[in-house]
Design brief:
Blueprint lengths: L2 H6 L9 E5 L8 H9 L3 E5 L2 H17 L6 E5 L11 H6 L1 E4 L2 H4 L5 H5 L6 H11 L6 H11 L11 H13 L6 H14 L7 H4 L3 H20 L28 H12 L11 H4 L12 H19 L7 H18 L2 H4 L3 H30 L12 H10 L7 E6 L4 H14 L3 E9 L6 H10 L16 H10 L8 E7 L5 H7 L6 E6 L1 H7 L4 H14 L2 H11 L3 E5 L5 E5 L11 E2 L3 E4 L2 H10 L4 E3 L9 E4 L4 E2 L6 E4 L5 H4 E9 L3
Parallel strand pairs: 1-3, 1-4, 2-3, 5-8, 5-9, 7-8, 10-15
Antiparallel strand pairs: 6-17, 9-17, 10-16, 11-12, 12-14, 13-14
Helix pairs in contact: 2-18, 8-10, 9-13, 15-16, 15-18, 16-18, 16-20, 20-25, 21-22, 24-25
Length: about 675
């Protein structure tokens, strides 16, 4: 038995056509619970506000019931209590009522502590509760229990720098999400031990970017100590290094528990190689990935390493979505290296063959995963953004708590994750004080602008904007309406699009508005580059690099930071290089004639076109308007003239569906 079994056991099909669930802790919105409910034939609607709920309820279910059709509908109410009485009266009269909460699942543990946990970690907590059967625990005892049995952290056993680095490397490299309340307890116990007084624990324990920056600036000191091992004491003098973070100059990178991570940190770009006077000798040792020798040799070595790493870590079909998000960033870096012919030398043909083989494996595995799991992502909570439509709600949650804060949302239309890798590298060259907190999000299927960009600005799934599903003209209104619903006035919100070239006069004028707090900006330069691209992925990389070097984006970021805005950047969809398989001859019956996707208002019309392209995918209207029937081109091909090669989007490849989401801030130095 698991905690999920207790919940899913209540969902037996055809017991009641309507089930109402009080879910104050969001248990039904956990990924595997959502999947289990769907597999049992139930459909789920979260009750978030009366208007959007009533629209979905009446159009998708009430009309079907009136026709005599049977459905299994679950309405989930998330409120601070188990009380369902805030639901509409007609639902309360017709529905079966259930309630689930963490207190019932974990009666002996402190509720505030476990309520802060990401639901993905409840499995380990439930198992620990069953195995160790703790009596009633207070706050601190619960925190210690969770740290030890869920995250495998025993603060009282951390005695040496290598102990601490091992714990932090495991946590940050794997992307383990530990609540702030547990981090505070962890730091408290470490401080009480008196062993790490000079370490910047408050920065490097909760923040992965700060931790890797802490390691990065100490890597040179470690190389110095390797080059002159007998003179190590000299390098404990931090004054000779320009450190941003306090703490010891020398870290035990060569300890077995730490060294095991080092190659991957450099391969995946979490750490950057540095030059050294004795680079040639050091490059013959285990630190080779962290040494700058020549651009060609560094890239070739990294390319080989990534190929091996990626081949061993392609997520399985039953993987959780977090595994694909992490894998996508590694894959993006490989894509960048694979287009840099100058660095591949004589190995180019052999290495590119390996990339092509991996591409087939990744495409096959990812499509199977998406087909099975994508529908469960839509209802995940926005407390940590997973999909584009989560972003406005996450911004509202994080920004509106502070009335003095200001936020700028930059949507770079069409920016793929591999192109973000290039953009970030060039921005770092132009302005070394910029810092990036990088995440990855799921776009919408089909991966086209009118679907995904509207979702990103409205905070809604596309089902709720059927009238504008084929255009972006309603975006300013959707953006303004979202913030109006949360109490902001019209002069506190702004929107502008068509950016990417020229001066910043339009943006400067917007930012000077005295009451402005929230601004949404659409930068469409990358999308324009893509639609004119005839040189494939390599051409895209080159053009994006040239565009960033022109300085528009750096100047925009500087302007926003000068005006005091927190800056977040995301993309609405990515793109791939595809080869033509011929154009459907459907005349005017297609509502959208894209290069990687065709959209029809009738499934019969779609089926007729599929007969000519049998490998294409009939995508169900998951989160889409009910009369939105997409036919998606398979693999890496497009509905254009046979053998024509172009860069396009609309499909379900990793590069199209997973997009960058980044907070960009400036170093305090």
């Amino acid at each position: 038995m698991s905690w999920r079994d207790q919940i899913l056991g209540e969902f037996t099909p055809q017991v009641a056509r309507l089930t109402l669930v009080a879910d104050p802790d969001g248990l039904l919105l956990e990924e595997d619970i959502l999947q289990g409910i769907r597999e049992r034939g139930f459909e789920l609607i979260p009750f978030e506000d009366h208007i959007t709920f009533r629209y979905a309820y009446e159009s998708r279910f009430r009309s079907r019931w009136d026709r005599g059709e049977e459905t299994d509908l679950v309405v989930v109410l998330r409120s601070p209590s188990n009380d369902l009485h805030s639901l509409p009266y007609d639902l309360l009269q017709a529905g079966r009522k259930l309630s689930f909460n963490l207190g019932d699942l974990f009666p002996n543990l402190s509720y505030p502590v476990i309520a802060a946990l990401d639901r993905a970690y409840l499995d380990a907590l439930y198992d620990a509760q069953e195995r160790f059967n703790p009596g009633p625990l207070g706050d601190n005892a619960t925190k210690d229990f969770v740290l030890r049995h869920v995250f495998e952290i025993a603060p009282e056993l951390i005695k040496t720098p290598s102990d601490l680095l091992r714990v932090l490397l495991r946590r940050h490299y794997r992307g383990i999400r530990i609540p702030a309340t547990l981090d505070e307890r962890f730091i408290q116990v470490l401080r009480q031990s008196g062993l790490f007084q000079d370490w910047p624990l408050e920065a490097i324990v909760p923040d992965a970017q700060a931790f890797f920056a802490f390691l990065q600036e100490r890597w040179s000191a470690f190389l110095d100590s390797m080059a002159k091992p007998k003179d190590g004491a000299v390098h404990e003098d931090t004054s000779r290094y320009d450190f941003e973070f306090p703490g010891p100059a020398l870290l035990p990178f060569d300890h077995d528990d730490v060294r095991v991570y080092i190659d991957n940190l450099f391969l995946e770009g979490l750490l950057q190689p540095v030059p050294h006077p004795q680079a040639e000798d050091l490059a013959k040792s285990w630190v080779a990935y962290g040494i700058k020798i020549s651009p060609m040799e560094n890239r070739l070595r990294r390319f080989r390493g990534l190929l091996d790493s990626i081949g061993e870590t392609i997520p399985e079909v039953e993987a959780r979505y977090e595994e694909w998000l992490k894998f996508a960033y590694r894959w993006a870096q490989l894509k960048v290296l694979s287009t840099e012919d100058w660095a591949l030398g004589e190995e180019k043909e052999k290495l590119c063959e390996r990339v092509e083989e991996l591409t087939v494996q990744v495409d096959t595995r990812f499509l199977k995963w998406v087909t099975k799991h994508y529908a469960s992502l839509i209802n995940l909570p926005a407390t940590k953004p997973i999909m584009l439509h989560h972003l406005p709600r996450f911004f509202a949650y994080s920004i509106l708590r502070d009335r003095g804060s200001k936020l700028a949302f930059l949507l770079v239309d069409g920016l793929a994750l591999d192109q973000w890798v290039i953009l970030k590298e060039e921005l770092g060259e132009l302005d070394p004080n910029l810092r990036f907190r990088e995440e990855v999000l799921f776009s919408w299927i089909p991966t086209i602008t009118s679907v995904s960009r509207q979702a990103a600005f409205s905070g809604k799934i596309p089902f709720y904007f059927p009238e504008s599903i084929h255009t972006t003209n309603k975006e300013p209104g959707l953006w303004a309406q979202f913030w109006a619903d949360r109490g902001l006035s019209a002069n506190e919100v702004a929107y502008a699009k068509g950016l990417g070239d020229g001066d910043l006069d339009q943006v400067s004028e917007l930012l000077s508005l005295p009451k402005l707090r929230i601004v949404g900006l659409v930068i469409d330069k990358v999308d324009r580059i893509m639609h004119g691209m005839e040189l494939g992925t390599a051409g895209m990389h080159n053009q994006v690099r040239q565009w960033v070097r022109q300085g528009f984006l750096r100047n925009l970021l500087g302007l926003l930071h000068d005006w005091g805005f927190q800056v977040y950047l995301a993309s609405d969809h990515g793109n791939i290089e595809a080869k033509g398989i011929g154009q459907p001859k459907e005349g005017a019956v297609a509502d959208l004639r894209g290069q990687r996707v065709r959209v029809y208002s009738d499934p019969i019309l779609r089926a007729q076109v599929k007969e000519r392209f049998p490998d294409s995918l009939e995508w169900p209207p998951v989160g889409l308007p009910e009369e939105y029937f997409a036919l998606i081109a398979p693999n890496r091909v497009a509905f254009v003239r046979k053998s024509e090669v172009l860069v396009c989007h609309g499909g379900i490849s990793l590069e199209e569906l997973l997009v960058p989401y980044v907070q960009i801030y400036r170093s305090a130095r």
